[in-house]
Amino acid sequence: MKNLYLKLLSLLVIQAFAYQTAHAVMVQVGTLGTTTTSTTYTPYKTLWEDGRTQYLILASEIISNGGSAGQINSLAFNVSTAQAQVLNGFTIKMGSTALTSLTNTFQPNGGFTTCYTSNVPGTTIGWNTYMFSNGFNWNGIDNIIVEVCFDNASWTSNSGIHYNTLAFNSNTQVNADGQVGCSMAATGVYTQRPVMQLNILPPVADDAGIAIIESPTVPACNLLNVPILITMDNSGSDTLFTATVNWWVNGIPQTPYNFSDTILPYSSKTGVNIGTYTFNNNDFLAIKTTLPNGVIDLYNVNDSLDVIVATGLSGSYTISSGGDYPTFNDAVNDLNAFGVCGPTVFLVDNTTFNEQVILGYVNGTDSINTITFRGTGNNSKLIYNSTGTLDNYVIRFNNGDYYRIDSLTIENTGLTYSYVIELLNGSSNNEITNCTLRNDTNTTTTSTLKSIVYGIGSANTDNNNLYKNNLMQGGSVAFYLRGQSTSNLADGNVIEGNTFYKQYYQQAYLYYQRNIKVRDNKMNMLASYTGTTYSLYMWYCYDKMEITGNILTIKKPIGIHYSMYLGQCIGLNNKKGLIANNFIATTDTNNLSGTYGIYSNGNTYTDIVHNNFNLAHNTTGAYGIYLTGGGNANVLNNSLVLRKMGYGLYVASVGSINNSNHNNLYVPNGNVGYYNGVIQTTLNNWINNTGFDANSISVDPMYIDTFNLHTCEVGFVGSGINIANVTEDIDGEQRDSNKPYIGADVFFDLSADLLGAEVSKCPQDAITLEVQGDSTQILSYNWTPGNLTTPSISVNNAGWYYVTITTACGSATDSIEVINKPLPIASFNITTTNQLTAVFADASTNATSWTWNFGDGNSSTQQNPFHIYNQSGTYTVTLIACNDCGCDTTTQVVTVLANSIDENFLQNVVSIYPNPNKGEFTISMNGVASAQIEITTIQGQVVYTEKVIANGSINKNIHLNNATGMYFVKIIANEQTMISKVIVE
Asked: Which CATH superfamily is domain 209-309 in?
């Protein structure tokens, strides 16, 4: 597939070049002879990283040198001194103007034609010609402005050129470093201009051409009923109304399309649909326009375009001598030619590949359709030996997105130039994981040319790249990542879980970043360099900067070291920077030079929380945290330990700090702090004179060792303050918001209640006993009785149980009593009347629910019900009394008798109201002369008795002062007895 594509492409390029050369007029503007390497005059301003120039060419100059109206399709400069420096994003634009002399301001180029853009691999002596992808149509009347610009990340020397000094301002220019080359503002205007050659194609009246095949595209992920869409171009001087568009598939002609529309001179029309076709993979589609406005096309350079209709790559492939692709570059060539139609994985053989790889934009890639290069063993290696600036990379991302590099060893063996990974032109959304990235591990230079990962921003910054779980070996700098400016920041890059080894100068240089994340890295620096070194060097890192979970250690016998050097990192109240859960240790007690744990210069809204420091340099220039400029820093829950001299917390600018508290400030041989121009020797001095750290302590945390800053200091337990967005410690162990610790490390609190209070259970049940707290920190368990060693045990029997746990901080023992809950015992009493009524009084113990069966098919769940039977008889009453441990059942026999109709007299004449009540109610009776009233509790205790005599009518008000509950009212009158239930609430 790739061989067919390359042969056809080469044939088409050769044919097009031959035709254009045969019909063009080459016009030289200027005279050769005078040369210069001056940055001001040359378009190749590579003494600087970025350059932009506008040159003015008068129409009279072109005409006097044999030129006329037509399409300019190439431009050349004559180079006298060549340089190999790559010109990234080298762009040529051309536009018409009425100006006869330039000013010191660039002319707006919104209407200019972008004729050429590419990464140019340096210059050669003689004419350096740039063939245009988009020709500039010149009307033969207007003057022309030629704009040239480029955007580099490094510099060397200028390429010299032949030039002339003119009688008018012909050159407006600018050169700079670290800018966006093609959008810089001018800094001066001059009369010196390079000698140039213009290739001009003569004009024609009628033209029909093809600018773009819009569909099918590469990759062609759908081959069924594909619309054939083109952009038609008119490079003629007359309006195009009609044309014939012929097309072929694999040489077989298809039905021509008769174009009938309007395209103005030197214009184009998109979305011209010439038909549909169902393709097979690798079909060859060719399209050609003819007969513009019905006449022969005399300008047929733009008449033909073709494309191989091929599906993109998808699925898994192998890179090996006998696999799908012998080399990385073979795979990359097909990616560039055909794109992808799905996630694509290249499995790299477990051997060494000696080559360079450029990963650029690939059609079809996105967050789902990623491209992965994955090693298949420990010996899957990609190596290269760079010898200069042009080949200083092993893998170069050049506008390459959505790549995944995984489980490879990638090494640059160059001695002076040794980038392992280089990022250019907005390479974003890539991931480099589980790799070994290596260059010279014995380097003795601070030159960034020996960085392991090097990415410097242009107009398109490198965003959202992830570097995770890699081994970074050697180099002057491990990560050198830079955005373009404070107004064009790189965004969302993450450096996570990497191990750093033997960097000479800096481990991470991060400049012009937004939302940068540096977390969970092991940054061990064994520096022989006697100058100033840096673990983290970060400037202009805006918004939610995060530095968390890192171990930063340095052993350096001579020279200043900064574990974190942070400058102008600007946060907001709702986008704060976070520095948390880090171990920071400098350990060489023979070093008499300065050392800084965190140096904060001009930063705003940064929370410095839960960090452990251990600084041992033997100098008064040792600083745990140094704050100058900026503002709104919060310093909370840190353990700052300086073993020798120096300052725990040095506040050079009073406005830098918002709050400091709940810290451990232990500086036994130096000063706790410096504030408002005054040294604060002790913690009490500091508290009294600054108003900070009222809840802080000063103890030696007895770290495990000088590098391992884990601790078991009980004074840290509960002495901190809860930080809502820091929920774990450096080891990923959960923090307890109710018992916040000082420092980066949470350890098991052996003084805590391990098992809790006594626990009750039902006798027949088993219960699980387990230790409270973070079980991940417990090394062993020993339970008795039973001598079990599991994290939890299941017990059936009541009694005392004991556990001994062992943690990294020691052992502790605790006990707990298991108690059996009592089972229920069912019991009840019965009271009957001669009115078919039975009153049931519960006498159960330990019951919480009751179920009654009255023996006649009726039931109740009340504790003390009464029941009226339908007829006289003897019934078996059953009570089931229950609690949450079980139930018990008991039965009794009850006999009830029915009264005659006369005997129901009291039921009809007695009223008790209100019922329920608050202890006051009325008993009303009609047709009785006297009555005996007796009120009892459900247990049978008499609480009220009275004989009432009246003349046929009784209204007796009853006042009970007893507790709430149910009572029985018994009335005897007219030789009848009735019982009624009363509820007191």
From this structure: Immunoglobulins (2.60.40.10)
Q: Pull the structure tokens for residue 857.
A: 């098919």
Distance, C-alpha 549 to centroid of its chain? 16
Please provide residue 519's backbone torsions phi and psi, each rounded to the nearest 5 degrees. Answer: -145, 145
Quote the CA–CA distance of 459 and 179 in Å, as a whole number.
8
- Domain 24-201's class? mainly beta
Q: d(Cα 38, Cα 455) in Å, to the nearest integer?
A: 28
Give the residue from 129, 136, 145, 23 showing the smallest Cα distance to 73.
136
Residue in the structure block whose two tokens are 């005409």: 63
Distance (Å, whole) CA 62 – CA 75: 13
> Can you say whether residue 85 is alpha, beta or left, with left for phi > 0 and alpha for psi between -120 and 50 degrees?
beta
Q: Are 600 and 627 in contact (CB under 8 A)?
A: yes
Give the torsion sign (CA, 477, 483, 486, 489).
negative
Q: What is the DSSP letter of 788?
A: B
SS3 label, residue 895: strand
10-24, 171-185, 444-458, 968-982: range with lowest mean pLDDT:
10-24
Angle at 32 between CA 115 and CA 185, to 5 degrees: 45
How far, CA to CA in Å, does 947 sit from each of 573, 808, 929? 84, 83, 11
In angstroms, rounded to a whole number, what is the distance separating the alpha carbons of residues 135 and 137?
Answer: 6
Spell 620-641 as b/e; 16+ CB within 10 A means b: eebbbbbbbebbbbbbbbbbbb
Q: Residue 825 is which amino acid?
A: I
Residue closest to 597 by CA, chosen among 637, 641, 555: 641
- Residue range 845-862: mean pLDDT, rounded: 94
Q: Domain 902-984 maps to which CATH number in 3.40.50.2300, 1.10.150.120, 2.60.40.3080, 3.40.50.300?
A: 2.60.40.3080
User: What residues form DSSP beta bridges with 193?
Assistant: 164
Which residue reads 């375009």 in tokens? 305
Q: What is the pLDDT of residue 901?
A: 41
Measure the CA angle with vertex 513, ends 507 and 518; round to 5°: 45
**Over pLDDT 90: what percentage of the chain?**
76
| Residue 488: closest CA among 516, 455, 514 | 514
CA 459, 464, 465, 468 torsion-angle sign:
positive
Average predicted confidence (pLDDT) for the chain: 91
Spacing of C-alpha 439 from chain mean position? 29
Q: Domains of the chain: which residue ranges?
A: 24-201, 209-309, 330-716, 759-816, 828-896, 902-984
Question: Which residue has tokens 């907005």?
Answer: 426
Q: Give me 616's structure tokens.
A: 């041992």
Output Rg (C-alpha) for the chain, integer angstroms. Answer: 46
- Helix axes 2-23 and 328-338, enclosed angle (nearest 10): 60
Fold annotation for 828-896: Immunoglobulin-like (2.60.40)
Residue 856: which residues within 8 A CB-CB, separation 6 or more?
A: 869, 870, 875
Residue linked to tokens 């029941």: 867
Which three-class secondary structure state does DSSP give residue 980?
strand
Quote the distance between the C-alpha of residue 446 and its chain's center: 31
How far apart CA 609 and CA 638 sit, in angstroms, is 6
Given a contact cutoff of 8 angstroms between Cβ atoms, the answer to whether 982 and 912 are in contact is yes
Q: Is 904 left (phi over 0), alpha (psi -120 to 50) or beta?
A: alpha
Average pLDDT over residues 236-262: 96
- Cis-peptide into 701, omega within 30 deg: no
Ordered alpha helix ranges (H), 692-734:
none
β-pair type (490-491, 451-456): unpaired
What the block records as the tokens of 540 is: 């202009």
- Tell me whether the CATH fold assigned to 209-309 matches the one assigned to 902-984: yes
CA distance 115 to 230: 20
- CATH architecture of the domain with residue range 330-716: 3 Solenoid (2.160)
Q: What is the largest CA-CA distance in the chain?
A: 150
Between residues 298 and 881, the one the model is more confident about: 881
